[in-house]
Protein 1
Amino acid sequence: MKPGMMRLLVTWGLLILLGGTELAASYLPLARCWRPLVMIPGVLMVLVVSIGFMEVKKGPVIVRAFAVAAMFWLFVLLALGSADPLTRTNYYVPDIHVK
Amino acid sequence: MSSTVAHDFQYESASYQAQTAVAGMWLFLATEVLFFGGMILTWIYSRHWNQLGFDAGVRQTDLSIGTLNTFVLVTSSFVYALGLLFIREGNIRQLIRCCVVTLVLGLIFLALKFGVEWPEDFAHHLFPSAPNFKISGPSEGGARLFFIFYFIGTALHGVHMVVGIGLLLWVIRRARRGEFSPSYHTPVTVVGLYWSFVDIVWLTLYPLIYLIGRGR
């Protein structure tokens, strides 16, 4: 078997394995706020696709720069956007209309 | 076959033109990351305030179709990458076969999503504005919000799939005319990047709409 074909097969197998792990992890009895951790294998799958199928490491330097920039912009967007809901403390306010 | 490949006047060589095209597609994909990033942010924000409703919504989605579609899409990216390997060796016949298999897998994905799953969702009164929405009680509002995210997210991904299928047809047409060779196959590479990106978008959507909140 050609080395390139072997690499693609390993990539595909790894994706199936990670997908199965993610599916199994979704049934773990996690607290509601920790359930997004189920996505960790999914994030790894994204990395595997970009390295195995999209060959991000083989492209010119500018390709890696665009890929890193995309991840950086996404991080800034998600971090700044979710800063408020993830850090806000809600205090109980009694209903003043109740007698 | 000529050993030199023609290139447009503004490039100093064919390889420079090819690198520019590939870099251009990556830059486009970077903008797409931000496009879908806004959607992911909406999910984070909405789920944070409506965890009960989002978990109730996730449990109503069809996990078997979602998982099967994930397998179909991952396999389609694998098959297309094989086609790229073949054209690098000059095997245009195998490239066409791989593109056709990728195309069929893409159509299977769309048929399962929009021909089976969506009609099921409508039949089960899961459309967010349905007056007789299936989920009632304290989680109803959050569940309706979840299904707004579900329908818009899968529709946007579906539009990208349709564009990808159009691009695959274009590659097949050009390959059948013998326009690609080991020294020139930039369109095959660029379309492969787009197709794998559509795969990545689905790999992100899959846990958000099928998995997170399914376990109790």
Protein 2
Amino acid sequence: MAWDDKRMEIAIGNMLRVGVLIAATVVIAGGALYIYRVHGPHPDYTTFHGEANQFRTIPEILKLATTGNSEAIIQIGLLLLIATPIARVVLAATGFLLEKDRLYFAVSLTVLVVLLYSLLQGH
Amino acid sequence: MSTIEFSGWIFLTSTLAGLLGALTGLGGGVVIVPALTLLFHIDIHYAIGASLVSVIATSSGAASAYVREGFSNIRIGMFLEVATTLGALLGAYLTAKVSTHAIGIIFGVVLLYSAYASLRKRPDTKGDATPDALALRLKMYGTYPNAGGETQYTAQKVPAGFSLMFAAGTLSGLLGIGSGAVKVLAMDQVMRLPFKVSTTTSNFMIGVTAAASAGIYLSRGYISPGLAMPVMLGVLGGSLVGSRLLVSAPVRTLRLVFAVVIVALGIEMIYNSMAGKL
């Protein structure tokens, strides 16, 4: 079967579902650990003071997750979730390249640059 | 309230929000933010952080089902995502500049509009349009399956649609919602795309748009793991069940009930923001 729009869309749809499934599994694992370990009154969310710095950047989250910190594991799951639509754009860009559609290859790359900028601007 | 109790209540509320969001086609984000801020008195920044994450989950989770139906248009979606992602960056930056009261009021207005949009009649006859030169050059056309075979369509008024998509992206980044109602407005009403093409392509675009503000939210500390966990899992679970029930559910009645709920939430958001209680 030739590479065409229909095939690309099916590949993208499946990729998105698998991405969400993996992300949700990691969040559930981290969440179970969180519920099991954290006791006492729930954190106060009524006034905004911002999440602690170790949960704000990718390197810090990764570092903390390796120590088995439940909240860092949840953040890893959420990062995987954020990465899923980004992977979708990468897959679409590849598809357009294979179709030799230069215009839409460029459009996909533009979207990708915006997404990566957002994810990396805090670093 | 203990952590487990609190997480449980947030999870239940989020499940209900996801269920209603899927059944009415409005998405879970538009109801979970008011629920978290009005019922649980959670600061709006934490609420929009958790909501945005759940929006990515539901959009991506539903995509594979939509793809198989053959309505979504990948080129139109990708081109308009340039506008929505740039808008989302702006919106995410604005969350730190705009006051909590202003965010609450804007949110209330968007809720009222969403309720109106979900009840509006949608005549799907758009055959009289002349081909749009820009849309042809950008390959913004396609076909969709119909009872009598394939029906062709071409986008109209691309610059106007693109601008409105930028606004939709800004709202998404500012409020932590998918802003599906505005995206559908841009494609269905402005670009004159078939309704089914507009809604499915909009769903596809929501995840990418939300991902564009998620990075900024994360680095600002809006995404709190303890809160985002039950919200994301609840909204995702609820919306998956909702989309299964959609076939047999009395959609028209649900839309009406949900619209009333949303109008009430919208008015309360505006009232509380003005009274300085948000």
